[in-house]
Design brief:
By secondary structure, this protein is α/β, with parallel strands linked by helices. Helices cover 42% and strands 17% of the residues. α1 crosses α8 and α2 crosses α8.
Length: 360
């Protein structure tokens, strides 16, 4: 609950205390809500983003079980950085280099040591979020309270790993489907392709002024604590409207920022699919087989092909179908839908990119 001008009782104490003005905080709650409406891409992402601050706070004060990590994604300069400045400000925040966590030896042990005691673990400007080593590190951060680490010049020891991870990436995010129970995705809305820097700066200036301040101790603007508390109040009120439940939504990220990211097979499959073919039989499209051989060559070619298909939401199967003469069944090679949400996201982006490229 929210109490105003109420001192703690004799059997109560604060977990945190912030020196900020109540009226300024409450005014910023509405501004912060407007900001999320502007920068978040879809209603499920907005739902997840709205719940993140209160989830993090409940874990920080040991009133909630840590089981999730958050991933924000879009193209560049869409507002992810400003939101992370704001929502991390009420917490003890530690910066994370995800690539180092998955390495071996002292470098990894030292990277883990940097997370000790953090409440908000912030990984900004990350590269591709994919691969088994990355997934192992993410599972540990999402679920474990301790992890072995070693500070420079120190002994091997367990650190306090109780913070909630939040990732900011412009690159590819492709995790195994088994990670869906851990990853909470938040898709940000890409800015219009023809938007000028001056136009973007004018649109965002209202929020930079409301949420941040220039200080003598930092070269970049710092989040006002009143804005951080406002994001927490906004999150609490939304959580309350959800009957105090964390029913996070499954969001597929847009990994296809440009069609040049596609190889020849991926592009051909999307071309066929968007022409109204949900199942793509090899025998109906004779160019498929030579295209597969040409695109995926050398060692590990099967793994390369499977990962490429997974990226666009497809998989290759031997599909059992009835023979044309009805005399029995036969097996035919085909591409079939593996991940419907991902395919919808990718195919929509593919068509939009084609239209944009034709207009240029």
């Amino acid at each position: 609950e929210i109490r105003v001008d109420t001192a703690p009782k004799s059997d109560e104490c604060y977990f945190k205390r912030y020196n900020c003005n109540y009226r300024e905080v409450m005014d910023n709650v509405k501004t912060y809500g407007n900001y999320l409406d502007m920068v978040i891409d879809d209603k499920d992402s907005l739902h997840n983003a709205s719940l993140q601050p209160i989830y993090t706070m409940l874990v920080a004060c040991r009133e909630g079980t840590k089981a999730k990590f958050f991933v924000s994604k879009s193209a560049e300069r869409t507002g992810k950085g400003l939101r992370h400045k704001v929502i991390s400000s009420p917490f003890i925040t530690k910066d994370v280099l995800l690539d180092n966590l998955g390495k071996g030896g002292f470098e990894a042990l030292n990277a883990w040591a940097q997370l000790d005691g953090g409440e908000f673990l912030l990984a900004t400007e990350q590269g591709d979020i994919t691969g088994k080593a990355m997934e192992r590190a993410l599972k540990v951060i999402a679920t474990e309270d301790t992890h072995q680490a070693r500070q420079t010049g120190g002994n091997l020891n367990n650190i306090n790993l109780t913070g909630v991870l939040s990732i900011d990436s412009n690159a590819k995010i492709l995790l195994d489907e088994g990670m869906n129970s851990r990853a909470v995705n938040i898709a940000f809305r890409n800015r219009p392709a023809n938007e000028k820097d001056s136009e973007r700066e004018q649109i965002f200036s209202e929020y930079w002024e409301a949420f941040t301040i220039q200080t003598a101790t930092s070269t970049s603007r710092t989040a006002k604590i009143s804005a951080g508390v406002a994001s927490l109040v906004h999150s609490f009120l939304y959580w309350k409207s959800e009957n105090f439940k964390f029913n996070f939504k499954l969001v597929e990220m847009n990994n296809l920022l440009d069609n040049s990211m596609l190889d020849d097979v991926q592009e051909r499959i999307l071309e066929i699919y968007t022409q109204g073919n949900p199942i793509i039989y090899f025998e109906h499209f004779p160019d498929i087989v030579p295209l597969l051989a040409e695109t995926y060559q050398g060692a590990g070619k099967k793994d390369k092909r499977n990962k490429a298909l997974e990226f666009i939401g497809f998989r290759q199967v031997n599909k059992t179908v009835l023979k044309n003469d009805g005399s029995g069944y036969t097996s035919k090679k085909a591409f079939v839908i593996r991940n419907k949400k991902r395919l919808q996201q990718i195919s929509t982006a593919y068509l939009e990119n084609k239209i944009r490229d034709n207009e240029l």
